[in-house]
Design goal:
With 689 residues, this protein is α+β, with helices and mostly antiparallel strands. It has ten helices and 36 strands. The strands form nine sheets. The protein has a four-stranded antiparallel beta sheet with strand order 1-36-35-34, with no helix packed on it. Strands 2-3-4-5 form a four-stranded antiparallel beta sheet, with no helix packed on it. Helix 2 runs antiparallel to helix 5, helix 3 packs parallel to helix 5 and helix 7 packs parallel to helix 9.
């Protein structure tokens, strides 16, 4: 119990931190809970008067002008709370009102009708209902049994369980991910507080463990706020809340408590408000109701790529030349097709706008809305007839950076405005007129531009055009590769087999001194780990991989391999390298998985391969998924000695040897593949034989 006391103290501190600053009269008190000594006639009188005031407000609301309804209702709720500021004890009715005011603050700037009908009115209805069916009986029973030693507080756990789905659902209505995170952050705190106060948690290991998990999740949320939230983060929080809902224990002999949107008061007739359509509670990721082996679509082109959206709902299938098809797994239909007579150059999901994009030759951009399937076509640059060079989508999805010849343009996606990076037109006159290449840093802040076959490198703030740093480099006709690591402000440049480090803080550009084998050159930079701790560099004339520690700028590990398959896991915890060995008519695929903390071999496997057979590897949490033409192998990295699960896909082997394309869902629950006939298949891993 000592551990739990420390946890509650920690949780109290977190919730009273700046991220949870509250006005004192609307504060739930964090650790405040009602005790037998708190039961008084004044408290009963407040509860009764508040219930009457709220009922009156519901009736009066019908006669108010639409524009003033929300303001009127907010004032009535605040008056009720203010009258109770000398009675901080937490009846369930008080919870409903406090939390409604907090959610109203989070949804500030949204449509008033949505906030009124989705948050305020349902909260007041729930408050009245809980007063009648929970608070009043609790108070009356407490007066009768003042001399009893056993005192049972209100059914806090049953109350919070009834609200978990509601919090998850309303989070989807906020327009921004940051706002959705705010809703979920408070939900995590409220649920943890309620469970802590509940009598059902006394000596209950499951509830205690769930509270500890919620505290850890709260700490993660603080990290998300600092680093930038994305859809995956939100799904993780919703999953944590759903786990609590499924596993928590509530008080015994408690009447069913309805969520805010389910409450229906007896005297309510011809309701003056609407109940918005609430999205289904998500299984994360949203799991399609399809059978294994279902054919999703038939493509016209030879398939060159299959991609899944962040929420695993949409499948994008791109052909070799002109056409993209988008399939909606939730609705089990083809959402739409993007096509053009021009050459397809770049494509992907615009998660920020809930759209799919495709850029074709001559800088034609086509956008398709993922909800409606509607398409629009816009010109990305002011020179649509100029030969195309390159286009990159910035990580924040605000701009396409398009470059060709001696110009670089920024295309503002939201405002559909194109402007030239002016500084580029100035510096190009000093050296060679044409750009060799350009790239954007991983943090989306810096634009690197190379001119004149390595004569000069520039680091620009691409939104302002300001030159941050520049270096004159050894002239070389070799292709330049560049990776920028924001954690140490270093750019790593590979040119002509020579590895350079460019320190952007002091603008020092130097060749890395390393005890590499003589006459063996660096072959290419392949990957940087998601945590930006390690950089994978191929060397030894292509015969091995070197792992660079970016903290010390020294090589930690060498892995001998001719293989082209290599990957870091999403967390950076694991690294895979694979190669094919054997005779031309019979080959074996050998691969190893390493732990990146000390690069010890975790898993080593050798599988039989057909000649020239294509394959793909995917990391999904603690699983490694290997897809080949007729089978899927699933390795459990948390138990690497266990045999893999093997899923047989076909009997007649319709996969093409030369064109295996696959995509795996974020949780590793299903796989999308193509076959030789340009069909796209769906495979659910949890029900394959």
């Amino acid at each position: 119990m000592k551990t739990l006391s420390i946890l509650f103290l920690s949780l109290s501190f977190l919730i009273s931190a700046p991220g949870f600053a509250q006005e004192s009269m609307y504060d739930e008190g964090v650790d405040t809970e009602i005790t037998q000594e708190d039961i008084s006639e004044d408290l009963v009188l407040w509860a009764k008067n508040t219930a009457l005031k709220l009922e009156s407000a519901l009736t009066e609301l019908k006669s108010k002008r639409q524009a003033s309804k929300k303001e009127f209702f907010i004032q009535k709720i605040k008056e009720s709370v203010q009258e109770a500021q000398n009675y901080p004890q937490l009846l369930l009715m008080r919870f409903c009102l406090n939390r409604a005011l907090r959610l109203d603050e989070i949804f500030r700037g949204h449509d008033d009708d949505l906030v009124l009908n989705l948050i305020l009115v349902p909260a007041v209805k729930q408050a009245i209902d809980l007063y009648r069916r929970a608070d009043l009986p609790f108070l009356e029973e407490s007066f009768k049994n003042m001399d009893q030693k056993e005192f049972l507080p209100p059914p806090y756990a049953a109350f919070t369980k009834s609200n978990i789905h509601y919090f998850i659902n309303i989070s989807y209505f906020h327009r921004s991910w940051a706002g959705q995170l705010d809703v979920l952050k408070y939900a995590v705190a409220w649920v943890a507080q309620d469970m802590k106060r509940s009598s059902a948690t006394r000596l209950n290991a499951m509830n205690s463990n769930l509270i500890i998990k919620l505290e850890k999740k709260f700490e993660k949320i603080i990290e998300f706020e600092k680093e930038g939230v994305n859809y995956t983060h939100l799904i993780q929080i919703r999953n944590a809340l759903l786990e609590v809902f499924e596993k928590m224990t509530v008080e015994k002999n408690v009447f069913p408590i309805d969520s805010p949107l389910q409450v229906s008061l007896d005297e309510e007739k011809n309701s003056y408000y609407f109940v918005p359509e609430v999205p289904e509670v998500p299984v994360a990721p949203p799991f399609p109701l399809l059978s294994s082996g279902d054919v999703l679509l038939q493509h016209k082109d030879v398939i060159q790529d299959i991609r899944l959206s962040q929420d695993d709902r949409y499948v994008m299938v791109a052909g070799e030349n002109k056409e993209i098809q988008v399939f909606d797994l939730k609705k089990n239909n083809l959402l739409g097709t993007i096509q053009s007579p021009l050459q397809l150059l770049s494509y992907g999901f615009l998660n920020r706008f809930n759209k799919v994009y495709a850029i074709y030759a001559e800088q034609v951009l086509i956008l398709m809305d993922l909800e409606t399937g509607l398409k629009e076509e816009v010109s990305v640059t002011a020179l649509p007839d100029h030969p195309y060079f390159k286009a990159i989508l910035t990580q924040d999805e605000k701009y396409f950076v398009v470059g060709f010849a001696h110009k670089i343009f920024l295309f503002d996606i939201e405002n559909r405005v194109t402007r030239e990076v002016e500084i580029v037109s100035q510096i190009r006159h000093r050296i060679d007129s044409y750009i060799d290449t350009f790239d954007i840093s991983l943090d989306g802040r810096i634009l690197f531009v190379e001119y004149g076959h390595g004569v000069a490198l520039y680091a620009l703030d691409f939104t302002s055009g300001e030159i941050l740093q520049s270096v004159d480099a050894q002239k070389s006709n070799a292709y330049t590769q560049l990776e920028y690591v924001s954690r140490n402000h270093m750019a790593y440049v590979l040119r002509g087999g020579v590895f350079y480090i460019w320190n952007l803080e002091n603008n020092v550009f130097k060749k890395l001194e390393d005890s590499y084998y003589r006459d063996h050159f660096f072959h290419g930079m392949k990957k940087i780990s998601p945590d930006q701790k390690y950089l994978l560099v191929r060397g030894g004339n292509g015969r091995e991989y070197r792992i660079l520690d970016v903290a010390s700028n020294s090589f930690l590990h060498s892995i001998s391999s001719y293989g082209e398959a290599h990957s870091f896991s999403e967390t950076g915890e694991f690294f895979l390298v694979a190669q094919e060995v054997g005779e031309s008519y019979r080959r074996e695929l050998s691969f190893q998985v390493f732990r990146t903390d000390h690069f010890s071999s975790l898993l080593t496997q050798t599988l039989q391969q057909e000649t020239q057979e294509r394959y793909q590897f995917f990391f999904r949490k603690n699983k490694l998924i290997y897809v080949r033409r007729t089978q899927i192998f699933e390795f459990d990295l948390s138990h690497p000695k266990n045999e893999p699960k093997i899923y047989q896909l076909y009997n007649d082997a319709p996969f093409s040897y030369y064109n295996l394309i696959a995509a795996v869902s974020s949780e590793g629950r299903f796989v999308i593949t193509n076959d030789k006939d340009r069909k796209v298949y769906f495979w659910k891993l949890d029900n394959l034989d």
